[in-house]
Design a protein that fits this description.
two-stranded antiparallel ribbon; binds zinc ion; alpha/beta; single chain
Length: about 260
């Protein structure tokens, strides 16, 4: 009996999701900040207004104490942000409706840096997913699937990151960055059971997409996306935990996201 209890206790440290010992620090592991700061350089879609931070007050008040306050404004889809399923799928979850448990969990990383370096219009394929599974096994149920294209290293250089630094509606046709092939998105949406996807580019559909079919395929299955994810190069292929909490805008189609990776020690 004692042996069984000890075995269960020991297994506790090996299995993700198990409760920690009461005196263990929380969270245990190395923390990685997976969000970019919002500032004047933050990359937005060419048609979206950028981030704005206006000063309401900054300095020493008449009463003698220091005080700062700002008013910020932002498009939902810029910087490190959430795409809620309703962004491309009527009736699906808005930013405030996604269950919190779907925004945190075990992460897997599918690396396509080599392919994306050779072709900035690269579409992450069904084969890329199958190759990952051939090495690590089937994508575990409830995973957050992160795609590492390597484009994060270009941030915040708009031209290198997106393919163009131009803005306005005409600039959209000039976008060149990798994304998920709609067939791969469809596979994840229908034949796997995942919580969310994430990518280190401005969009889960590649820059040249006109129909945003990967958005449609995933969001139709209520699978949200995280875009412009930072520091993806620091995550292992398996074993990390991710927590990605967006601003809770009622009915929002997305929004600024504070995303954290916790790496096993
Ligand atoms: Zn978006």
């Amino acid at each position: 009996m004692r042996t069984t209890t000890f075995a269960a206790f020991a297994a506790c440290f090996l299995i993700a999701g198990c409760q920690q010992a009461p005196d263990a620090p929380f969270p245990s592991g190395t923390i990685v900040d997976m969000s970019y700061a919002f500032n004047d350089d933050t990359i937005y879609w060419p048609t979206a207004p950028g981030f704005n931070k206006a000063t309401d007050f900054e300095g020493v008040t008449d009463a003698g104490f220091y005080y700062t306050a700002y008013t910020v404004s932002t498009a939902e889809h810029g910087g490190t942000h959430l795409d809620a399923p309703i962004h491309f799928s009527e009736g699906k979850w808005a930013a405030d409706q996604i269950p919190l448990e779907n925004l945190m969990g075990s992460a897997i990383v599918i690396d396509v840096q080599e392919q994306a370096a050779a072709n900035r219009d690269y579409l992450i394929s069904v084969t890329d997913i199958e190759n990952w599974e051939a090495e690590f096994g089937p994508i575990p149920e409830g995973s957050i699937v992160l795609f590492r294209t390597g484009f994060g290293k270009f941030w915040p250089d708009r031209e290198a990151y997106m393919g163009t630094a131009e803005r306005g509606p005409e600039a959209v046709a000039l976008l060149h960055f990798p994304g998920i092939d709609p067939a791969a998105a469809s596979l994840l949406a229908t034949e796997r059971s995942i919580k969310a996807v994430g990518i280190d580019t401005p969009s889960i559909d590649y820059g040249q997409s006109n129909l945003f079919e990967s958005h449609q395929n995933l969001f139709g299955a209520n699978i949200p996306a995280f875009e412009n994810v930072a520091n993806l190069d620091r995550l292992p292929m398996t074993g990390a935990t991710v927590i990605a909490l967006p601003m809770k805008t009622e009915g929002g189609s997305g929004g600024p996201l504070r995303m954290v990776g916790i790496l096993p020690n």
